[in-house]
Write a structure and sequence with these properties.
Strand content: 5-15%
Strand order of the largest sheet: 5-6-9
Helix content: 40-55%
Bound molecules: glutamic acid
Radius of gyration: 32 Å
Oligomer: single chain
Number of strands: 13
Length: 500
Amino acid sequence: MTQQMSRPVRVRFAPSPTGELHIGGLRTALINYLLAAKEGGVFLVRIEDTDRTRFVEGAMERQLYDLQWGGVAVAEGMLRNDSGAFVQTGDYGPYIQSKRLSIYQQHIQTLLDNGSAYHCFCTADRLSAMRAAQIARKEAPKYDRTCCALSAQDVAQKIAAGDPYVIRLKVPDGTTTFHDIVFGSVRVDNATIDDQILIKSDGFPTYHFAVVVDDYLMKISHVIRATEWLASTPKHVILYHALGWADAMPQFCHVAPILNKDKKKLSKREGGVSVKDFRDQGYPAAALVNFIILLGWNPKTTQEIFTMEELITQFDLAKLNRAGGIFDMDRLNWISRAHIKGMSIDTLYREGLPFLKKQEFFAHATADRTTEDYVKRVLTVEQDRLETYQQIGVYNQFFFTDDITVDKEMLRWKTNTDAQTCEALQRAYDVLSVLSEENWTRDGLEQILMEAAGERRGDFLWPLRTALTGEKKSPSPFDCAWVLGKDVTLQRLQRAQACF
Ligand code: GLU
């Protein structure tokens, strides 16, 4: 144990390219990354693509992009050069399991030679009959070791005859124990462990074999992954021993899943499950990262909003939760709002513009309403309330179109008369028409309009605000006037007056 503690931290995220990166996957990557960043270690990515039946073209590239988007910096394994090609890093690379078949072949030979693995020629039909019989006898299905009894000669003959085969682990008698950082001590009776297939009939290693060989060769100090793999870990521990690598065994750390409100696995119904879903909805990467890390890690302070730097400094594997984190959309929105609120306008503009450009109301806006300067004014006014980039402008479309509807009833404050409403609009016009361009600032407008409003604010500010927006709810009249500018503000006041 002490020897392990002093090992340099080398951790890995090992996605299988079977689809989009799930937010649970990003969280696993993040936990690995935070540990490496905090301890001055190395975070590497390895692509586990040995299950050819589940391989999805392009998924690897998309998952790597998602990691990068999430701010998880890969230090080794899957790095690209300037022209986008993956390059060798560390001792070798890129770390793509399907490109490392000869390495697994070499190590399976060690296991065959020392009697820890054997060839199995059983057909799929025989195996399913065996399994059905075991189930009928109320036994846990497990390979019955028929082929373990074959002599070396039998094996050689069958191979020479071209019989298809797999190679299985010969699980030794006894018990297997290991320590998990989150789940503590785990002890398993080996009699309950199946003789796991290590090499499939297509010559590819299974996950279980490749993961052990690669974690060893890549000098991984901590295996941090989803709890679904906790039950497989005893097989891996057996493999470390069988390969003579027990001294180099990494520490294991299994992280609880992200659950929905019914404590079930998060599904599409909750709105989104992949990193891409949330990116497309306009959540800032830092907000998603902040949200998902808190679903599995408890900082044990009252702080709720974290930057990546803060997460790195405060991260501690000992504070990972055992229970699954419950996904709560309201909390994500709250965290996201806090992140957007804390951004510079330049950042908000850069990140938000692509979303705004997709909005129909923006596409139809006149050129003077799509300039950087104008959009930044809208953002300044909206910033504190935005939960996503996708919301930019949506609730305040009057900033982008003159096609707004006002009528007497909307302009009227409470039970005021037409005359009182007209008077308020006229007074607003008079005050604003003499305000210089240079005083047309948020503060300048607030000051002059509050002075003009006097005691009876609603009487004065309500007609002004509705005249400018055509909405019952909107930012303050000062902010609306500031964004719209003097000309449009005066035009809209005149239009409102014409209702009477
Ligand atoms: N390829 C496995 C997965 O995608 C990784 C498991 C591990 O980290 O060992 O879940």
